[in-house]
């Protein structure tokens, strides 16, 4: 899922940079940083949930609940850091860039509805069970 988030995320970052650069270079970069923060946070949560899936149901719950709070903290930290130190930073463009999470989430929902995400999970589960059941080499 993390790699699939890049399908709409990368074009969204390029588009945000291009459209924002029409207004000013700082606006374009601020919007692109917002997109990277949103899409990167989404991909990070997907990777963390993938790890938690192998640990336990409790780990999945902790990652799901805390992951959102961590994402908000990271976005807030990036915003505060850039707003305090970068004279070119545009808070409105950064906030607009965060809306890139909408097409990413819609694309992931589309994949889930088509069953593609479920196929990836089932294939990963099969591969894990096959490698776990194989045992050491040379044994029957």
Total strands: the figure is 0
The percent range for strand residues is under 5%
Radius of gyration, taken over Cα atoms and rounded to an integer in Å: 19 Å
Spatial gap, N to C terminus: 36 Å
Report the structural category. mainly alpha
Mean pLDDT: 81
Helix content: over 70%
- SSE order in H/E notation? HHHHHH
Largest sheet: none
The general outline is: elongated
Number of domains: 1
Number of helices: 6
Give the uncertain stretches in residue-range form.
none
Could you please describe the fold and organization of this structure?
With 140 residues, the chain is mostly helical. It has one domain (2-129). It contains six helices and no strands. Helix 1 (2-23) runs antiparallel to helix 2.
Mind sketching the topology for me?
Elements: H1 2-23, H2 25-53, H3 57-85, H4 91-98, H5 101-114, H6 116-134
Give a brief rundown of this model.
The chain is mostly helical.
Which short descriptors sum up this protein?
140 residues, mainly alpha, 6 helices, 86% helix
